[in-house]
Specification:
The chain has 307 residues and is of the alpha+beta class. Helices cover 49% and strands 21% of the residues. Helix 1 crosses helix 3.
Length: 307
């Protein structure tokens, strides 16, 4: 058996572009035989995955898993390189099974996910094999769990193209009310998908965001020629409007703009003889915050055919 030296690991990495730990494991499994280690990596899909790992993944899909009792939901964003692959059945199945795995096992971080076991093997290997099969880099970018207590309710909405997903949660006075507000929670999730609130309510607005908004307001007032002596009277109103525009509970409800989202939920609960309050939401949009490369559909198809 040949010794698994750093030089041997480096040579295997140079020849396969696989990760260092994968190379070390391959050489250990193959008793230091370089050619067998290359085949071992290829069979695992790790060599092909590593070659793609540096490529930008900004497309993909949002997947949501909702518990049967409507007390918990998990939402995830998994990215690939092109929208063409984002609509691929194998990719979508990988995303769905990954979200179910996260949901059922209480996984909290991406690192924990990669270190977990799925279908009797390491999730990191499962991911690498999927990358090799599909032919693009795949990244589990983020996920979140939203849950409630015994008297709470959770509902979800995913846009038809899978690009936007929302989970909303409310705590109610009893289970009867929780069941009664399920429909309006679905509508609120759809509202959040369309209106893209940044915060649940004003208690979640960071002080630095308000400070930044105040500076923007001052610059606008200066540009408009408003006297500085008037600013202290105008800016508070602008900050109130900022909160109303960006906090989910304060936004005019899209299905009835005479009510806020908070009032729409309260009205549904009152009809059932109870009370309800929104406590959490999560809204994911594919690729938000990432720099996307320009690529038209024809180019995506050509890229797939070239692989």
């Amino acid at each position: 058996m040949a010794a698994v030296t750093s030089e041997l690991i480096k040579e295997l990495r140079d020849r396969t572009a696989a990760g260092m730990l994968d190379c070390k494991k391959a050489l250990t499994e193959c008793e230091g035989n370089l050619d067998e280690a290359i085949d071992w990596l290829r069979k695992k899909g790790l060599s092909a995955a590593a070659k793609k790992s540096g490529r930008t993944a900004t497309e993909g899909t949002i997947t949501i898993e909702l518990a049967a009792n409507n007390k918990k939901a998990t939402i995830s964003e998994v990215n690939c390189e092109t929208d063409f692959v984002g609509q691929n059945e194998n990719f979508i199945e990988f995303c769905a099974s990954t979200t179910t795995h996260i949901h059922n096992n209480g996984i909290k971080t991406v690192d924990d996910l990669l270190a977990s076991t799925i279908n009797g093997g390491a999730f990191s290997d499962h991911l690498s094999i999927t990358i090799g099969k599909i032919g693009e880099n795949i990244v589990v970018r983020r996920f979140a769990e939203v849950s409630v207590g015994d008297n709470g309710a959770v509902n979800v909405y995913k846009h038809a193209n899978g690009k936007i997903g929302v989970v909303v949660a409310a705590e109610c006075d009893n289970q009867k009310t929780a069941e009664a507000v399920q429909a309006v929670l679905k509508d609120i999730a759809m509202h959040a998908a369309a209106m893209n609130p940044n915060y649940l309510d004003e208690t979640e607005v960071p002080a630095e965001d308000l400070a930044r908004e105040e500076e923007v307001a001052k610059a606008q007032l200066e540009k408009e020629g408003k006297p500085a002596a008037m600013w202290d009277k105008i800016i508070p109103g602008k900050l109130v409007k900022f909160k109303k525009d960006n906090c989910l509970v304060e936004q005019p409800f899209v299905k009835d703009d005479k009510k806020t989202v908070k009032e729409a939920l309260e009205a549904a609960a009152k009809t059932a003889g109870g009370t309800a309050k929104l406590t959490a939401f999560a809204r994911f949009e594919v690729g938000e915050g990432l720099e996307k490369k320009a690529c038209d559909f024809a180019s995506e198809v050509a890229a797939q055919l070239a692989k």
